[in-house]
Amino acid sequence: MKSIVSQLAFADGEVLVTGEMNELEKASFLSTLNKMAEKKKNTGKEMFVGVTRVLSDNESKVFFEKVKGQYPEMDIKIPFLTVMETLQYKPAESAAKVQCPVLVVIVGQDSVNPPEQGKALYDAVASGTKELYEEADACHYDIYEGAFF
């Protein structure tokens, strides 16, 4: 691998998903996820939900509503346990081992993966050759089309 470009990423899935929850809310949420994981393990069945049940922020809801007309194949259901996988994903731990050049791209108005998460990922990168690029006025999905693309 010669270089890495990380675009609109996060550093810590648990912080991303549960960061706004108080301890009681977090415990209840994790308990529900654990019950769902146990059910999947025991029965092989799991709950599938619309993408915006997992990506439930307003920015994602608006984006998916807009594009599903253009791209009907994006109107899918995904496993709700994707949330558990996101909780367990901690890219900053891997970034601490990276030695090749790295570019981390963030947007300043991101409500999906807040810019603080991208900055934390950048800070975790071990490489001495790294750059943080920010489009301060862009939202998460703006980076895929239009003026910020």
Automatic annotation (TrEMBL):
Residues passing through the membrane, by range: none
Domain AB hydrolase-1 per the UniProt entry, residue ranges: 3-146
Keyword Aminoacyl-tRNA synthetase on entry: no
UniProt keywords, alphabetically: Hydrolase
Gene3D superfamilies: alpha/beta hydrolase
Gene Ontology MF annotations: hydrolase activity
Pfam families, per database record: Abhydrolase_1
InterPro entries, alphabetized: AB_hydrolase_1, AB_hydrolase_fold
Descriptive protein name: Alpha/beta hydrolase fold
Organism of provenance: Klebsiella pneumoniae
